[in-house]
From TrEMBL:
The lineage of its organism: Bacteria, Pseudomonadati, Pseudomonadota, Alphaproteobacteria, Sphingomonadales. It comes from the Bacteria. Keywords: Signal. Residues 1-22 form the signal peptide. InterPro entries: NTF2-like_dom_sf. This is SnoaL-like domain-containing protein.
């Protein structure tokens, strides 16, 4: 039995370290991931701006939800709110600042400042939002699982 104990420890060590190395090999490079995440966030806003529901659905997870304007929006509700605002003549202009991303293999947390305007032209009011998102890498693509936006305090 004492012969098998070191052998068992050796096999367990290889099994555990082999799994860790295999898992790390599946993680994207940090620079590539950050660029892909930034593109996904910009594409998310483009899909909302263009009312492109197909693109929006490809950019969010099946469990996606958002906190915006003091409410929780499940799945496509956020898309519908933006679409309804556009139908009422409301123009929403977004301009995302630098995106700060923290990455842990297939999960990322990003935050940025968004400066733009909202209103019915020509009466557009300047707005500054503080925003963040949690993204998950699914089948090689970064998707937004959670989005949060709130108006920034006036200076």
């Amino acid at each position: 039995m004492t012969f098998f104990r070191p052998l068992l420890v050796l096999v367990a060590t290889f099994a555990l370290t082999g799994c860790v190395h295999a898992r790390q090999a599946d993680c994207p490079s940090r620079d590539d991931a950050r660029a892909e995440i930034e593109r996904a966030i910009h594409d998310f806003f483009d899909a909302l701006r263009k009312e492109d529901q197909g693109a929006f659905q490809r950019l969010v997870t099946g469990s996606f939800y958002a906190f915006d304007v003091g409410k929780r929006f499940d799945g496509p509700e956020l898309f519908d709110v933006i679409k309804d605002a556009h139908a009422q003549g409301v123009q929403i202009n977004w301009s995302l600042g630098a995106i700060d991303t923290e990455l842990q293999c297939d999960v990322a947390w990003s935050a940025w400042e968004n400066v733009g305007s909202v209103g019915i032209p020509p009466d557009l009011e300047p707005v500054r939002w503080l925003e963040s998102a949690v993204l998950i890498r699914e089948n090689g693509d970064w998707k937004i699982d959670f989005f949060h936006s709130q108006r920034a305090a006036e200076n």
